[in-house]
């Protein structure tokens, strides 16, 4: 089954404790992206990657890091999480290098709480 | 920076009613996508529109793209409880970014 998987689905952590949210897709998509979703603010893009070893900032990249060492994986790293990073996070992927006309497939989401 | 405005923000209706939600942009859309997000899940693409004036139908859902490509509407006929969800519009933009509106939260009551 074609899908985007994220782990963990739920995470409660404390300020400053490094964490990684994994994202994996099995559709051989070139394009992957991370979003956060907050009430009243909608979905905002954090980082995206057009292919292996190619990443770029989205609208809200501060406090986050990403890497794209393999085509299928795109982990999101919070080196020193803070309470304002409490949010619902989505990973998405898309085929071909121009997702403008392509469907973005979203993972099920990771609900992160930083105390 | 492009701004996408969706209205209404919330909509609660009875099963069988018709409804329309709107998406307006401060600038011309590169292309426009409509997604539906059900509780506890990620958004799922409903449709992509590209050409000004384009109309697409998906069963009881009708999507319209404005002639000037700065606005779009989603009309649902005879809404059902299964239509409940957050409806998001998004612009393909440039540099492989999607810009989302804040969404319309639709509740269809049995």
Describe the structure in brief.
The complex is a heterodimer of chains A (115) and B (110). With 115 residues, chain A is mostly beta strands.
The radius of gyration of chain B is 13 Å
Largest sheet data of chain B:
6 strands, mixed
Total helical elements of chain B: 0
- How much helicity do the residues of chain B have? under 10%
Helix-and-strand structural type of chain A: mainly beta
How many helical stretches of chain A? 0
The low-confidence runs of chain A, each spanning 5 or more residues with pLDDT under 50, are none
Q: Report the sheet-strand fraction of chain B.
A: over 45%
Specify the oligomeric state.
heterodimer
Please mark out the parts of chain B with pLDDT under 50 across 5 or more consecutive residues, or reply none: none
Q: Got a strand count of chain A?
A: 11
Summarize the main sheet of chain A: 7 strands, mixed
Order of helices and strands of chain B: EEEEEEEEEEE
Total beta strands of chain B: 11
Structural class of chain B: mainly beta
Summary keywords:
heterodimer; A: 115 residues; mainly beta; four-stranded antiparallel sheet; 11 strands; 50% strand; B: 110 residues; six-stranded mixed sheet; five-stranded antiparallel sheet; globular
Word description of this protein:
The complex is a heterodimer of chains A (115) and B (110). With 115 residues, chain A is mainly β. Chain A is built from no helices and eleven strands. In chain A, the strands form two sheets. In chain A, strands 2, 4, 5, 6, 9, 10 and 11 form a seven-stranded mixed β-sheet that branches. Chain A has a four-stranded antiparallel β-sheet with strand order 1-3-8-7, with no helix packed on it. The radius of gyration of chain A is 13 Å and the shape is globular. Chain B has no helices and eleven strands. The radius of gyration of chain B is 13 Å and the shape is globular. Chain B is mainly beta. At the A-B interface, β4 and β5 of A face β5 and β10 of B.
């Amino acid at each position: 089954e074609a899908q985007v998987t994220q782990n963990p689905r739920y995470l409660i952590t404390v300020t400053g404790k490094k964490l990684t949210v994994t994202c994996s897709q099995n559709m051989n998509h070139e394009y992957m992206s991370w979003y956060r979703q907050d009430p009243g603010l909608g979905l905002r893009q954090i980082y995206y990657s057009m292919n292996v070893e190619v990443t770029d900032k989205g609208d809200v990249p501060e406090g986050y890091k990403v890497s794209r060492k393999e085509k299928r994986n795109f982990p999101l790293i919070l080196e020193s999480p803070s309470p304002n990073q409490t949010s619902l996070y989505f990973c998405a992927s898309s085929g071909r290098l121009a997702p403008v006309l392509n469907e973005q497939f979203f993972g099920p989401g990771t609900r992160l709480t930083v105390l | 920076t492009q701004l996408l405005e969706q209205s209404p923000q919330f909509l609660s209706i009875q099963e069988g009613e018709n409804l329309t939600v709107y998406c307006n942009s401060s600038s011309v859309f590169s292309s426009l996508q409509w997604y539906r997000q059900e509780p506890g899940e990620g958004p799922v693409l409903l449709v992509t529109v590209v050409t000004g004036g384009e109309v697409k139908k998906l069963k009881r859902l009708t999507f319209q793209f404005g002639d000037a490509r700065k606005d779009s509407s989603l009309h649902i006929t005879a809404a059902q409880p299964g239509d409940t969800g957050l409806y998001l519009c998004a612009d393909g933009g440039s540099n492989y970014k999607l810009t989302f509106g804040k969404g319309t939260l639709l509740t269809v009551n049995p």
